[in-house]
Design a protein that fits this description.
By secondary structure, this protein is an all-alpha fold. The chain has one domain. It contains 14 helices and no strands.
């Protein structure tokens, strides 16, 4: 992969996406502006639409980027509804049942699902070295998730705990399906930047339909949203767009594995920015696994 400039660019874009996701997480946590549920998803989609999607599509039209074929557009729209809406809602349901540490741990195991789906749908598999790299990255993320101090799994009824973890796996599958659909859309024919913006259009349209209130009422509600949530929503939009562009440049499981490192980066950035994060030995081991895994993906992919 190191001798393929486009693939290397895809890896760098995926890493930048993970960093932006982490920065947004820290900003939301420090401002107390984070929200959950379909209402919060709807708010974030409106901000992403106005601050990211519309400008990107306008620039793409101005510079003459080609319009993707209908099949690619359809796949991108479905990917938005599945990954950005259904996946996020399932994740928040899992979080409510088993707590943030375990829910994030299960969701960020999605690269494993991506590998299986990519093999089944695209007929491609990671190289042995890159496969070991993906395993190391997922292991580092899971190691970090196990270090959380959340005790809801132990305290909750076993039935609720199992349900929460099952919903977390469903969220991981939804995110994985969305990534693979984007990869198929790009291969069907289409500019990855334009298709990435169309994915957001699909998520926005689905959120507008499902979220409470009319579109006009949802727009009016944006006036009551603080600046931190607006900035974080736009940043997350840019991060997700970069991840989709990366999928168009490099094999999708590699992108999924790198983006899944966002929780680890969140802990590091939170500590460096003065938030109440503790850099433990367990976190250090997780970071070593992730760095080693990323290097294996870059070399062996």
């Amino acid at each position: 992969m190191l001798d393929d400039p486009s693939a290397l660019l895809g890896i760098l874009l995926a890493l930048l996406a993970a960093l932006l996701f982490a920065w947004s997480n820290v900003s939301l946590a420090r401002s107390g502006a984070a929200g959950r549920g379909i209402g919060a998803v709807g708010v974030s989609m409106w901000f992403a639409l106005g601050l990211v999607v519309v400008p990107v599509l306008a620039v793409a039209a101005a510079v003459g980027r080609p319009v993707p074929p209908p099949a690619s557009l359809g796949l991108a729209l479905v990917a938005g509804g599945v990954a950005l809406l259904v996946g996020r809602l399932l994740f928040w349901e899992s979080l409510a049942l088993v707590g943030p540490s375990r829910a994030s741990m299960v969701k960020n195991a999605s690269p494993v699902v991506v590998v299986l789906l990519a093999g089944a749908v695209l007929g491609e598999w990671p190289t042995p070295l890159a496969g070991l790299g993906i395993a190391a990255v997922v292991g580092g993320v899971v190691q970090h998730g196990l270090s959380g101090d959340d005790r809801r799994v132990a305290a909750a009824e076993p039935r609720l705990a199992v349900r929460g973890l099952a919903i977390g796996l469903a969220a991981a599958a939804a995110f994985a399906v969305g990534d693979v659909l984007v990869a198929v859309a790009v291969r069907t024919g289409g500019d990855p930047v334009v298709l990435g913006a169309v994915v957001f259009l699909g998520a926005w349209a689905a959120a507008v339909v499902v979220a409470p209130g009319s579109p006009v009422a949802q727009l009016r509600a944006l006036r009551d949203v603080g600046r931190p949530l607006a900035v974080a929503s736009a940043t997350m939009g840019v991060a997700r767009l970069l991840a989709f562009v990366a999928i168009g440049l490099v094999f999708v499981p590699y992108v999924a594995a790198i983006v899944a490192t966002a929780p680890l980066l969140t802990a590091v950035i939170g500590r460096l920015s003065g938030a109440q994060e503790v850099l433990t030995a367990r976190l250090g081991v997780s970071m070593l696994l992730v760095v080693a895994g990323g290097a294996a993906i870059a070399v062996g992919g």
